[in-house]
Amino acid sequence: MSFAKASVRDAPVAGSRVLVRVDFNVPLDAGEVADETRVRAALPTIELLRERGAALILVSHLDRPKGPDPALSMAPVAARLEELLGSGVALAPAVVGTEVMELAEGLEAGDLLMLENSRFEPGETANDATLARGLAALADLYVDDAFGAAHRAHATTEGVAHLLPAYAGLLLEREVRELTAVRDDPARPLCVVLGGAKVSGKVGVIERFLGTADEILIGGAMCFSFFSAQGIAVGDSLSDEKSTEVAARILERAEGSSCDLVLPVDLVVGRELDAGTEVRELDGVEVPEGWTGLDIGPRTASRYADRVAVAGTVFWNGPMGAFELEPFAGGTRTVAEAVAATPATTVVGGGDSAAALDAFGLADRVDWLSTGGGASLELMEGRKLPGVEALMDADRIGSRS
């Protein structure tokens, strides 16, 4: 698929300071990076810029602090990046300001400066123009490699992109190419596997794929909204009135489409969300009172695996159950193994699906594993991502100064 935005490959970066928006929103454990997937994903762009003689200023958010919070400093991320690169990474004391400017002005080719957590600044999520100008003053060019944040119109993702020559990083470019290929030109049949908690969070994706996919396989807690809409008892399973109404609308639309919307035929239920809880396998989908549906059943998992095996393209977003707990991991594991084994083109939409593949040791056996959960879903819906739209068009390289 063609990519309409200017690529970092074409950026004239030698001797320049480049502000790079990365997605280093990673989990921390005891003050250390617990999952470095997103850090590693940014390395190709970082290394390309350094090889071409740029000085890099990296900026990212981390979690959702309500102002400066030492527990959410970028320090552990800077330390891990330093280890991965085998090269020094300086940490700025803030996001913008006089001291940060002095550090930026002192950078030489190949140097790396990481700014503090962008969400320490209240103007970040408000896309504040003053903050954007402060960021733009640090650099000569801007590169956005944070696909996971591209659906947010924030100062570091959208505001600053209008103030500097703005290019797409290698990761962001690849993400858009891979996901739009599935959305717009998939090898047939296109099998979409959707799980997770709430159908309301994925209604746009479902409605989009009802018009383009050959089949949509539903799992996770979201299936209970569909069952509730059909008048099937769901016990204590996760479901609410709004999601049930949404599911009813989707079921009605599915009847008039050529897409096969597939729901589970059996379930694994527990008394509560706990690894040691009492567990039952239901030969059906009606959940008794006092029980909670926490995984698709083995017959459903097998059926889903069979459909994945004969697909031309598979897009998977959302686990089939509470895979973090072993009694309820079977459905997600079976689907993950099927996705890993199929000869189809396989694209996994980040978030918990990526975590599941990693937990089962299968992350390297899919064609593309997205780093952006929400961003991948919005792109699949056909929505424009502010962080992508703000970049220079490929046919206008050199026109912005």
Description of the molecule:
The protein is an alpha/beta fold and 401 residues long. The chain has 2 domains: 8-173, Phosphoglycerate kinase, N-terminal domain (Rossmann fold); 186-381, Rossmann fold (3-Layer(aba) Sandwich). The chain has helices at residues 37-51, 75-85, 98-105, 129-136, 155-159, 170-184, 203-210, 223-229, 241-255, 298-309, 330-341, 351-359, 373-381, 386-389; strands at 17-21, 28-29, 32-33, 55-59, 90-91, 112-114, 141-144, 166-168, 190-194, 215-218, 260-262, 267-270, 279-282, 292-296, 313-317, 345-348, 368-369. It has a 6-stranded parallel β-sheet with strand order 5-6-4-1-7-8, sandwiched between helices. Helix 5 links the parallel strand 7 (141-144) and strand 8. The longest helix is centred in the first third of the chain and has 15 residues, at 37-51.
Keywords for this entry:
single chain; 401 residues; alpha/beta; Rossmann fold; 2 domains; 6-stranded parallel beta sheet; 14 helices
Low-confidence parts: none
The main pleated sheet reads as: 6 strands, parallel
For this structure, the CATH topology of the largest domain is Rossmann fold
Give the CA-CA distance, first to last residue: 28 Å
Rounded to an integer in angstroms, the radius of gyration calculated over CA atoms is: 23 Å
Tally of DSSP helical segments: 14
The helix content, as a percent range, equals: 25-40%
Strand content: 15-25%
Report the strand count: 17
Query: What's the mean pLDDT score?
Result: 95
